[in-house]
Amino acid sequence: MNMPKKLHTPKRFGLLLVGSLVLLVVCMLASLAFGSRTVGWDELLDGLFRPAVQSYEADIVRQRVVRTVFSFMCGAALGVSGALMQSVTRNPIADPSILGVNTGAALFVVVGIAFFNISTASDYIWFALAGALLTAAFVFGIGSLGRGGSTPLKLVLAGAATSAALSSLVMAIMIPRSNVMDQFRFWQVGSVGAGTMDSIMTFLPFFIGGIVIAILAAPSLNILALGEELATGLGVRIGTLKLIASFAGVILCGAATALAGPIGFIGLLAPHLVRLVIGADERYIIPMSALTGAILLTFADVAGRLLGSPGELEVGIVTAFVGAPILIALTMKVKVRGV
Q1: Given 133, 206, 297, 338, which residue has the most CB atoms within 10 angstroms?
Q2: What is the CATH number of domain 83-333?
Q3: CA nearest to 133, candidates 99, 160, 110, 156
Q4: Which pTM value belongs to this model?
Q5: Is the Cβ–Cβ distance between 129 and 256 less than 8 Å?
Q6: What is the pLDDT of residues 209-228, one digit of tens each?
Q7: Count of CB atoms situated within 10 Å of the CB of 170
Q8: How far apart (Å, rounded) are the C-alpha atoms in residues 157 and 142?
Q9: Where do the H-state alpha helices sit in 225-314?
Q10: What residue ranges are annotated as transmembrane (predicted)?
Q11: Contact 336, 91 (CB under 8 A)
C-alpha cells in the first residue's frame, strides 16, 4: 500500500510554520504602517499599545488594525477553500473563482440588492452563501454527468460555463438599475478596505467552522488522494467526505466573498505554492494554505496602497494582475486528468 510520502519531518514543517508566521507579522505591520499616510514606529506603538495617546496618526493605526485583521481572515479563508477544492476535485488549478462559486455568490448579492434592498454585512453573507452553495452543487452535478463521472476537466469546463452564464445574469439585473450598479460596482472589484468590526464578527463563526472542518477532514483527504477505489476499501465514505470538504470550502469562500467581494487567484496560488514546498500531505497543506493566503492577500493590499498612492488600487485588481499570468503558466504546465 502506497501511502502519501512524508516528505518533510515535523521539525522542518515547524520551521516553515515559524517562518510563515514571521512573514505574516511583517506583512501585518506593513499594513498598519503604510497607506495614504505613512506612520512611524513610535506612532505605530502609540496606536497599538497606548490607548491614552490620542493623535491623528494613532487613530489611523487603530483603524488599520480592523482592516488588517479582516484581510488576514479573508486571505486565510480563500487559501483553505482553494486547498479543499483542489483536493476534492484532484485538480491542481481548481479554485473558487474557476469553479464559478464566486460568480454564484455575486449573483445572489445582486439579487439581494436589487429586489430585497439588502445593505448590511449579515444580509450580504447569507445571500452570498446561498449563491455559492447552489452554484457549487450545480457545477459538481453537471461535472458528474456522462461517462466516467466527474473529472478535473469536466469540472473546470462546467465551472467556466456556469460562471459565464451567471455573469450575464448579473449584468442583466444591474444595467436597468443604476442604484444597484452604483452599490455593486465597488463590491465587485474586491476590497478589504470596507471591512469593519461588524464584518469581522459576522465572518468569525463561518471562518472558524470552515477551518475546523478542513483540519478534521485532512487525514481522509490524504487517503482520497490514493484513488477512490482504494479509499473506499480503506473505509472512507467518498461521497460524504467530498460533501463535507466541499461544504467547508464553499462557506469559507462564500463568506469571504460576501464581505470583501470576489477576490480571485488567492485560492489558486496559496495551496499551489504550499504543495511546491512541503509536498502533498493535507495535514500540512491546509494550515499552511491559511497562512500563505493571509500573507498573499495582506501583501497585495499593502502593494495596492503603495502603487495607488495617494489613493489606492483595490486588492482584487492587484491579485488579478499578479495571478492571471501565473494561472496561464500553470495551465500550460499542468497535465489535467481527462485531457
Answers
A1: 297
A2: 1.10.3470.10
A3: 99
A4: 0.88
A5: no
A6: 999 999 999 999 989 888 87
A7: 19
A8: 10
A9: 228-233, 238-260, 266-278, 282-307
A10: 65-85, 97-118, 124-143, 155-175, 203-226, 247-272, 284-303, 315-334
A11: yes
